[in-house]
Amino acid sequence: MIYMLGGLLATALLGLDQWVKWWTVSHFTAPLPPHIYATADPARDLLPGLVELTRVHNYGAAWSSLSGQRWLLVGLTSLILAAVLFALVRRTVRHPLGVLAGCLILSGGLGNVIDRVRLGYVVDMFHLQFWPSYPVFNVADICVVCGALLAAAYYLWFYDKYDKGGTHGDADTATR
Q1: How far is CA 75 from CA 14, 117, 128, 168, in A?
Q2: Cβ contact 110:81 at 8 Å
Q3: What are the phi and psi torsion angles at 123 (to 5°)?
Q4: Among all residues, which ones are annotated catalytic?
Q5: How far is Cα 11 from Cα 120, in angstroms, rounded to an integer?
Q6: pTM for this one?
Q7: Are 102 and 84 in contact, with CB atoms under 8 Å apart?
Q8: From CA 172, how far away is CA 24, in angstroms rounded?
Q9: Which position has the higher pLDDT, 106 or 66?
């Protein structure tokens, strides 16, 4: 049941990511040189003083690392997504927190892979007004970061007890 709920959540978040990207593209002009990364349109307040909306084309990964390495990023992201999907399909991860983490990582990673394959870049739109030097990000990035944080919490506090030994809830029998 938890896998089905996780799959539905991942699908809904992927849909939300793609819809927000579509909305951003349709409501902000495309970046033009010399502003190849950011739109010339002024940013619009989403949560005044906290978050504003804009349109940025990110040709790299986080903080524009590996910029211009489109297919390398698609390949690396696909390998990570395949490993996460493998762990979920094989039910290696059974604790709800681990399943949620995997589903968030899958939805976010897939959302950005879709952009990279289809457009050659990722559409970003959220900018933190109180942290001007922080990069612009999107719904998929939020999913990946939240999924990674939850995966770390799962590994630190639940993995040994629930999933390490291959038996659900009884790690002691696996170490004998």
Answers
A1: 19, 10, 29, 33
A2: yes
A3: -85, 120
A4: 124, 141
A5: 22
A6: 0.85
A7: yes
A8: 52
A9: 106
User: Cα dihedral sign for 121, 126, 129, 133?
Assistant: negative
Q: Given pLDDT bands bounded at 50, 70 and 90, which one contains residue 174?
A: very low
| 3-state SS record for 17-86 | HHHHHHHHHHHCCCCCCCCCCECCCCCEEEECCCEEEEEEEECCCHHHCCCCCHHHHHHHHHHHHHHHHH
57-66 pLDDT, tens digit per residue, is 988 888 777 7
Q: Counting beta carbons within 10 angstroms of the beta carbon of residue 48, is it exposed (0 to 12), middle (13 to 18) or buried (19 or more)?
A: exposed
Instruction: Report residue 34's pLDDT band, with 50, 70 and 90 as the boundaries.
Output: low
Measured CA to CA in angstroms, residue 59 lies from 36, 115, 132 at distances of 10, 10, 20
Alpha-carbon distance of 34 to 89, in angstroms, equals 46
Chain-centre distance for alpha carbon 13: 10
Q: Do residues 168 and 161 make contact, with C-beta atoms less than 8 angstroms apart?
A: no
